[in-house]
């Protein structure tokens, strides 16, 4: 079934124009997109905390999205934070409020609203440090976690969420550089742990293109899930 979609974001429009089941028509919102399946009007928002279905798709239960009128993907900085923290929050490992250092303007309230459904209610701290990273958004997240009996359990938490996904990948071996994701639709993350008894310090680095996982690619990915399409359609 073909759908009609519109967006005021040129990057989203470019991806929609490459989608085999989308006709681009009409005026859309400056961020995100609207689309119609027959008479059913639907929307993908960006950075909205008042939308019930919200988050990154790799952490959410995607089944309700098929019937939802709307969902909201996070803003760029919150996307990076959720890639880093989502598996830990869902696994109940976070011990203290995390600190997020990011290149992107990010509201603590947005991250807190995304973490709440995952069971973390104690907030977070955000520090914005603008850097010349070109098209790439970056974040370093530092969080005290409850030390598991087996440190491999941390890797398993992330693998459970990301190993079968298209758009979040782990990279522990490359020289860490924005060129790894510039112009790409996926994010990369890297884990470093300083183990200790009781609590350990976990540092997570995340990078993604602002038009990739931090932007247009994530919006179109959300539309694909909502509309029942293959997740990668229209996304190079």
| Helical/strand content category | alpha/beta
Number of helices: 5
Spans where pLDDT lies below 50 across 5 or more residues: none
Q: Give the CATH class of the largest domain.
A: Alpha Beta
Strand content: 25-35%
CATH architecture assignment name of the largest domain: 2-Layer Sandwich
- End-to-end Cα distance, whole Å, is 21 Å
Order of helices and strands: EHEEEEHEHEEHEEEH
> What integer value in Å does the Rg equal?
17 Å
CATH topology of the largest domain: Dihydrodipicolinate Reductase, domain 2
Global mean pLDDT: 97
Main beta-sheet strand count, sense and barrel state: 6 strands, mixed
Q: What's the total number of strands?
A: 11
| Number of separate structural domains | 2
Global shape: globular
